[in-house]
Design a protein that fits this description.
Layout lengths: L2 H19 L18 E6 L5 H14 L11 E5 L3 H10 L4 H4 L4 E6 L2 E5 L5 E5 L4 H8 L6 E5 L7 H11 L7 E6 L5 H7 L6 E6 L9 H11 L3 H6 L15 H6 L10 E9 L8 E8 L28 E6 L6 H14 L4 E5 L5 H14 L4 E6 L4 H11 L5 E3 L4 H9 L9 H12 L14 H4 L3 E6 L2
Parallel strand pairs: 1-7, 1-8, 2-5, 2-6, 6-7, 9-12, 11-14, 12-13
Antiparallel strand pairs: 3-4, 4-5, 9-10, 10-11, 13-15
Helix pairs in contact: 5-6, 11-12, 13-15
Length: 469
């Protein structure tokens, strides 16, 4: 036995003795895994509820349990967090991580194959992020596992793609399954899991107030930040928000103005709005349209406000429509082809591309996709001179007046419309792709300088037309 081997043996013995002498962690009721032979355990909980502790303990007990595989590695585990760094700090080394629950765990260890945690019995867990296309590819190539831990699942940027890849690899042993710990957010996949659309998923719930061990200063700080707000429902109580008071749209107004595709009036303009997000994250690709002049009351809309003055005359007005949402998480050649295909499918008059992030490169992506398809579709460059809220507010104002309609149900787009507001630190790319269309088609007008708070900013909005082939 080498000196290094003896050192490792001594280190493991000391860790085992320390684990024996340390009192066992006692779970709270909401931290106990649900009974039954489930495929996925989704623990939705407010901040500080102890959800990371619960999943770290679950992984540690799984490793110490009956082997899932024969041979020197009885358990292969995947641990996925918003970033790989989050997996290291939250899931492994942090105060609620695996090493706090099982001192015999070694790591994180950087190897040629990635960052891993190892146990004395040969079990191994590999750490992943879910923040980029490269992370998705690492999950695709990560091999088969018997257990996966999905940490802060709702915060994954590439949520659906990463979830798909981990499921493809979750097929080792007699009962491959996953556990997920997250503060909920209004994400389509999370809602599907909670609704039971994927068989075998069990959802449990906890609030911050169900953890009596949470230090008082932490509890007070969270209450100071979120108590009495919509986000308090999410961050403290662990509820998925359906809509936020400060958001620009209301679900009731969207539903009241909804129409079916086969009942649309004569459309005089169609455009594809594209928010490329600099090629990173989600690309908003939304098809919108403008009608000819329509008399009020012809299309569905919210009931009239009884406190509004009665109009002296009824004038026909243009209406706007959301026809399709083709938003995606794809590399440039992928989202460019998707935007062009949307224009073809809907016989759009043009493609309207925001160039704040990516500049001429964003237009070049569309150009390349058009060349590959052998098409000649006008491309309009638009540049934002103010924030998203400044562009979205006039479009949002069309909805309660019955002039902005969704031709169908667009769940993810509507989630952004009803939960995003300017103070949030994330970008609603679907919403942004949607609002360029009505500006470009003249459904909302540019206010001349001096007429209002939108004027000086929006009057300088640049819309330059170029025909690309």
């Amino acid at each position: 036995m080498t000196t290094e081997d003896r050192a490792h043996v001594a280190q493991r013995a000391a860790a085992a003795l320390g684990a024996f002498l340390t009192p066992r962690w006692t779970p709270l009721p909401h931290q106990i895994p649900p009974p039954g032979d489930w495929y996925g355990w989704l623990l939705l909980a407010g901040r500080g509820a102890g959800k990371t502790d619960a999943c770290a303990e679950y992984v540690a007990r799984h490793v110490a349990g009956p082997p899932c595989l024969p041979g020197p590695v009885p358990h292969w585990i995947g641990i996925i967090a918003p970033t790989q760094g989050d997996a290291v700090t939250a899931c492994v080394s942090g105060p609620s991580g695996i090493k706090a629950h099982d001192p015999t765990a070694r790591g994180p260890i950087t190897t040629a194959g990635g960052t891993v945690v190892r146990w004395a019995n040969g079990s191994q867990a590999k750490l992943y992020g879910a923040n980029s296309p490269e992370d998705v590819e690492r999950l695709r190539a990560g091999g088969n596992t018997c257990l996966a831990w999905l940490e802060e699942f709702a915060a994954w940027r590439y949520m659906q793609d990463s979830f798909d890849q981990l499921r493809f690899g979750l097929r080792s042993g007699p009962r491959p399954h996953w556990v997920a710990s997250t503060t909920p957010k209004p994400k389509l996949l999370l809602n599907r899991l909670k609704a039971g659309e994927i068989p075998g998923v069990v959802t449990t719930h906890a609030t911050m107030y169900e953890n009596p061990h949470l230090p008082e200063h932490i509890r007070q700080g969270l209450e100071d930040a979120y108590a009495g707000t919509d986000l308090g429902e999410q961050e403290l109580l662990g509820h998925i928000l359906d809509e936020v008071t400060n958001a620009l749209w209301r679900r009731s107004a969207i539903a009241a103005s909804r129409v079916q595709l086969d009942s649309l009036p004569g459309l005089i303009r169609r455009t594809v709005g594209v928010d490329p997000s600099g090629g990173a994250g989600e690309q908003g690709i939304v098809v919108t349209a403008k009608s000819g002049l329509i008399l009020p009351g012809v299309l569905p809309g919210p009931p009239p406000d009884p406190h509004s003055p009665v109009p002296t005359q009824i004038r026909p007005q243009h209406h706007g429509f959301v026809l399709d949402d083709r938003s995606c998480h794809l590399p440039p050649d992928g989202w460019g082809a998707r935007a062009v295909q949307a224009a073809v499918d809907w016989e759009a008059d043009d493609i309207c591309v925001e160039v704040n992030y990516g500049g001429d490169q964003a237009v070049a992506v569309i150009h390349t996709a058009l060349e590959k398809a052998g098409l000649d579709i006008p491309v309009r460059k638009v540049r934002a001179t103010q924030g998203k809220a400044i562009r979205a507010q006039p479009v949002a104002a069309l909805t309660p007046t019955g002039r902005w309609h969704h031709a169908g149900v667009f769940e993810e787009l509507e989630n952004q419309q009803c939960t995003w507001y300017p103070e949030l630190n994330w970008s609603p790319d679907r919403l942004d792709g949607m609002v360029w269309g009505p500006w470009h088609m003249g459904l909302v007008r540019v206010i001349p300088r001096g007429e209002g708070s939108l004027g000086s900013a929006l009057a300088r909005k640049q819309i330059a037309g170029t025909r690309l082939r």
